[in-house]
Amino acid sequence: MMAGVKGGFAISIDDVFAAHQRIADHIIRTPAIESERISNRLGCRVFFKAENLQHAGAFKTRGAVNAVMSLNDEDARRGVVTHSSGNHAAALARAAALRGIDAHVVMPENSSPKKMAAVRSYGCEPVLCGPSTPEREAAAESLRQKTGATLIHPFETPAVMAGQGTVGIELIDQIDSLDAILVQVGGGGLLSGVLIAVKSLRPDIKVFAVEPELADDTARSLKAGSPQSPTRYDTVADGLRTEVGANAFPIIRDLVDGIFLVKETAILAAMRLIAEEVHLVAEPSGAVSLAGLIDQAEQFQGQKVAVVISGGNLSFGACTMGTH
Amino acid sequence: MMAGVKGGFAISIDDVFAAHQRIADHIIRTPAIESERISNRLGCRVFFKAENLQHAGAFKTRGAVNAVMSLNDEDARRGVVTHSSGNHAAALARAAALRGIDAHVVMPENSSPKKMAAVRSYGCEPVLCGPSTPEREAAAESLRQKTGATLIHPFETPAVMAGQGTVGIELIDQIDSLDAILVQVGGGGLLSGVLIAVKSLRPDIKVFAVEPELADDTARSLKAGSPQSPTRYDTVADGLRTEVGANAFPIIRDLVDGIFLVKETAILAAMRLIAEEVHLVAEPSGAVSLAGLIDQAEQFQGQKVAVVISGGNLSFGACTMGTH
Fold first, then answer.
1. What percent of chain A has pLDDT over 70?
2. Nearest residue of A to residue B40 by CA position?
3. Matching CATH number, B13-59+159-309, of 3.30.1830.10, 3.40.50.1100, 2.30.130.10, 2.30.40.10
């Protein structure tokens, strides 16, 4: 155990190191791109960790690959199962295909057609279910019992958390003298993984969470001292509508340097700014960290700050982009 | 002079090497990102050289920085001048600001407001003129005579061509066993620079040009054996409406492995595919090389192919991106 992080969490820095080695050949080491224009505008040097360029379009690929490649051969033969409306679904389908095993992916019937198509593109037909969390969990559990497949939860499975934490290892390596990292939080898999990595290796780097005001369960959980449920599920940042995970929460509670809440309009403005000025396509969920930085720019003046951008799985109509 | 490239061209590999060193601290070494989905779709491994993530949004920054940093102090003091409706204008304004000298940038009055704003963002007020080439050239020449500034042409200035050629050096370094590079051609600065770099260092790598059917002057010039004028100026790929340069033409004629013409619909489809599947924002001009690869995919089966993506300087309306 290194300085700065006590033991007893669901994952340790050794798990993140192991994930880093295990997944290296199967993921993209995404660039951390500085945007000079946004740096000038905000008064700090802003680096975009471009996980929207990751295979399957999101950081979820890291955790999914790590979880699938961690299985012993006997478990692997029985396949994997998950429920997800979003990028974890495609990421797990891809990871299972890489290992040549079955993936059983439960998706709510109101999932985005594009995200369903992404799952199919990896040779996996999603199993549809009702939209509520109990319906999703029941469908996944039923498949698990029938097939003996291993559940790979989108954020609660420790191997998933460790895989997402490799974003932190890469950022430390890619940006000299980094001062702070801003990370969006939904279930907390990415945030907790990054916290374990960064606070173990470079406790001087601040790590802040950013969460939509309309999905503020993590902020309320930190105040209450225990995980609180969401009260609504309608933020435009659809990837962050979940409640913070039981494995992630203690890590976030003990290690995060602060949490910023952002408005819906700020999320959409950040998404547009990322497209127009950085020339990256991010989903609303993947633009939340920049929204937080814009709101809080004053406290980062002169610093080097990384924001994690993810999930570019959007559709563009024929009329959507103009040269003027 | 290395194997494969004779002398007598406007630039040599030594010029490209010198540019590579000169500009290193002032540009982004842009990533060459593989898109697994597009690779699977096309049957070859496709790498996107993401020059849309370059400072000022386009590869033009390389040539502009190289040209400005190549000036001796006396010339530099009198500033630089150019005419451009596009990304070279902003790139030169930025390069001049880096060196602390004046830039006089002539832009047609019908230029995109976004591109004018980009020039202003580097502290340079564009000088507006009529839209025709003679009007642009006259306005720039008048400014040159008045100020003594050095003309930095968007593609004819050898230092600009050498700067764009650094894309070729980086690609060779970034992608093992690369088989082919597809490069869009307008004035030919990028194409000729890449040809000098690649054919000097790795003559086994094929380099193909891609040009809009509606701006086919380079294809006609290659057939005729001498530079031919454009017959129309209405391709959606507005950065490629210029005629091929007199300095670039002999390089292209002697070294290019072929030229592909693409339809307007193919350019727009490629731009959309880049946004939806790769999650990068490219201008139509910057999507032309992918359009060529899609058309010609059959001849690249099983190969490793790089396409140069550039210019993400688009505007997005509030309604332009959807999660479904």
1. 96
2. A121
3. 3.40.50.1100
